[in-house]
Amino acid sequence: MALQDAVGHVFGVDGPLSLALDGFKPRSGQTRMALAVAKTITEGGVLVAEAGTGIGKTYAYLVPALLSGGTVLVSTATKALQDQLFHRDIPRLRTALNLPLRVALLKGRSSYLCLQRLAFARQDSRANHPTAMRQLAQVERWAVTTQAGDLAELEVDEEASVVPLVTSTRENCLGARCPQSHNCHVNMARSRALAADVVVVNHHLFFADLNIRESGVAELLPTVRAVIFDEAHQLNDIGVQFLGRQLTTGQLAAFSRDLVIQGLQWARGFANWNLMVLDLDRAAAALRKLCGQGVPTGKRRWNSHAPQSIAERAWVSVMAVLRAVVQDAAGALGNVAECSPELKRLQDRATALIEKIDHFSHPADPGQVRWLESGDQVRLVESPLDIAEVMQSRVVGSDARNGGGKSLIFTSATLGGDDKMEWFVNACGLQGATLLQVESPFDYATQASLYIPRQMPKPSDSLHSGSVAMLAAQSAAVLGGRTLLLTTSLRALRNIGSALQQHFSQANGIEVLVQGQLPKRELLERFSLGSSGSFNGCILVASASFWEGVDVPGDALQMVIVDKLPFAPPGDPLLEARELQMESTGKNAFKHFQLPQAAMALKQGAGRLIRRETDRGVLVVCDVRLLQMGYGRKILAALPPMKFLTTREQFQDALHALTKPSTMDPCWT
Fold first, then answer.
1. Range with the lowest mean pLDDT among 206-215, 227-236, 383-392, 474-483?
2. What is the CA radius of gyration of the chain?
């Protein structure tokens, strides 16, 4: 049976999914997308598929991938989505379709326990903190029983202080010289991936592998016939992080810590390791001081020899001192490198640091944009403007563009504000791809309403955040919580979160949760439980990562409030360089770049509201520019066709209507 015929049968009324999965209902949009994916896998080529919320795009690409008979690589935006695919979605389909497939999960090094690093973890000064000591003891107990070594099994927060103590990086991994290489969880995960029919990775790992191939290191990922990128709208932003260069004071600090630990462990007396580390720390401190003098934290342009607001002479001097002390360390390590694999790896790291210092001591390469970031640490960053050239030359290739053997599928709920999806296609170098747009099956006009408060101060007004907080407090009180408030900046997050917590501090019934005060997983669990009626109602105030990937179905979430339009903040050097490039071709940067980007970001945030056919809710956008500026119509056109509420009274009526309970429906992705 041809793949397209087999896929059509699977999604049919009497197909395996209808018979095996309770609550599964055939959806024309899902079947349409699945058939397009099957056609691309069969014939080769590139498919860009925008699938509206509720289509069930996960099954739409997984079913043809699993039935194809070839090796398939699925890349996701986050490790959380990786785990969902590997532990939930693929097992369900493999059982329903009775397919004896080998499936592997492959993450980056920082996700896996490193037995060699664990052996030395208690010698690290960072392990002396009580919290780190408790976490380390937990890891040590788990290390004895784990098979995969994936830290997700422990549900350890990625930012936990214990993670860098017990995981390796590309810089400090000993590779084949490691005494634990035969038990290495990273190596075993790669071996499973090489033997699998379906491999689930993430975009970060995919682009890291591109850089490794470029430098001649053995490939991380197996060669596959078909690659599927889910949440593809994040590809460009993630890709530029890995296709450029970075030198950070965090890298210098990590090298310094390992130098004193390993130097004293394996070559005590062969060099004054403590003095060497002291010199390194002083040089790094001088760099931090130079980059932070009289300048607020954030990103700074770097269009000449030195970053903006830093004198060239001072920059050259600091970089020369830094290079000299790293060179001294490299020389000392070269004398003792044969004493242990750890010292040889440190020598390699010193050489790599010198190369980076030399690179950032000279102007940027043509076609690259460079900037400096200062904050908790200093970052020197250089990256390409986008991933188009790399995707064309090393991912798509001529055979895929011409319908050859390789198949590439890119999918997301938001890939552009027009039928050509230029915002995504151009940045990723996918001109000529087959385009597919499948509308959401949800009845937004019935299920959702949109309210733009006309009396709200302008976003630039100092009273704006307070007004947003007051509207949220009054509205959430009607719903008993059930509110997700998304902000476009950390300042607004703090101001609105603090105002709401103060407002409800004396009141019973509503808890205000603020991003950063608890891990993301715990925030979402407490919000879902609280807003579903099990506990007190909740308001969740969040920014950044909560704009997408948050799935709270049913009555637990009935109102999404957005503080203002998510335009990119001014002064970002990478965005400015992209705008200059666009204007050099005769295009208006605001119209062709900023506006589509803001529209797609708002659409992502709005997508948190309606997650099932029976969900109901209100989207509130507290930005009067949507009504007052000409571009407001274009942004509104990118949103689902919700009922538009024009008065405060209509808004209040909509809130009261939501207090009547609705029936949840099972969801099949």
1. 206-215
2. 26
